[in-house]
Design goal:
The protein is of the alpha+beta class and 240 residues long. 34% of the residues lie in helices and 14% in strands.
């Protein structure tokens, strides 16, 4: 009888130990997910979870950008947007799907610390690492004056996105210039690009306008939601 009682008590203790371990493991995972979710305000979402087929190529999280290194605040290559902007972008993606086209994003929410990083870089006139690719014909001293670099960015409000169109093969459509090319050829109304590039830019702009985004005249890739929820708020939380 004693042996049987011991066995039952041992089995009970083992069951409790297993259950406790499972609960503890769950709490660790749940806690990690909750902590990650709290890294940004509740009104923000990861657009990749909302926008069908979204291709994410966040340039400022890596070195392929006009600065030539990761930018402050970009700790992960994620496209964070306000819920309103992400929902509008999802509508654009659904509109384009019958054409066999996808959206490819280069930048979304941008922390103000990243904007400050750009400003510091712009004032360092000896740092010309990205000039040949991104601003070959532009004097770095004029980047602020010409509107290519700003002390404040509407990206920091969470409803602005830099993007292009891509085929389902993930290859980008010809837009006449690469993303972040500084110069008149990147202006929305540029005439010095091919007819195909002009058509592709027009399609992108029309698709974005149809869902409430407005373009920026000096960057064919840049769009801001017209009725953005945080018109006067510039966020600084990092992208993780």
């Amino acid at each position: 009888m004693w042996d049987e009682d011991q066995k039952r008590r041992g089995s009970t203790h083992l069951a409790f130990a297993i259950r406790y371990s499972l609960i503890a493991a769950f709490m660790v995972v749940f806690g990690a997910q909750a902590a990650l979710a709290q890294e940004w305000p509740a009104q923000f979402v990861d657009a990749a979870a909302i926008v069908p087929g979204l291709i994410v190529d966040i340039r400022y999280a890596g070195a392929h950008n006009f600065v030539g290194r990761p930018i402050d605040g970009y700790e992960a290559p994620r496209c964070l947007l306000t819920q309103t902007a992400a929902a509008a972008l999802a509508a654009v993606a659904r509109d384009l799907a019958p054409r066999g086209l996808l959206l490819k994003v280069f930048d979304c929410y941008r922390p103000t610390r990243a904007v400050a990083d750009f400003a510091r870089w712009a004032h360092d006139l000896n740092d010309l690492a990205g000039k040949a690719e991104f601003y070959p014909a532009v004097d770095k001293r004029t980047l602020f004056r010409d509107g290519y670099i700003a002390k404040r960015s509407n990206h920091s409000r969470g409803s602005t996105v830099d993007l292009t169109l891509a085929q389902t093969s993930r290859s980008e459509l010809d837009m006449g210039t690469p993303f972040d090319f500084f110069g008149p050829r990147s202006w929305t109304a540029a005439k010095t690009i091919s007819a195909t590039a002009r058509t592709n830019r027009a399609l992108l702009a029309a698709s974005m306008r149809h869902r409430g985004f407005r373009p920026y005249e000096k960057e064919w890739w840049h769009f801001t939601l017209s009725h953005e929820p945080f018109l006067d708020t510039y966020f600084n939380f990092p992208i993780r």
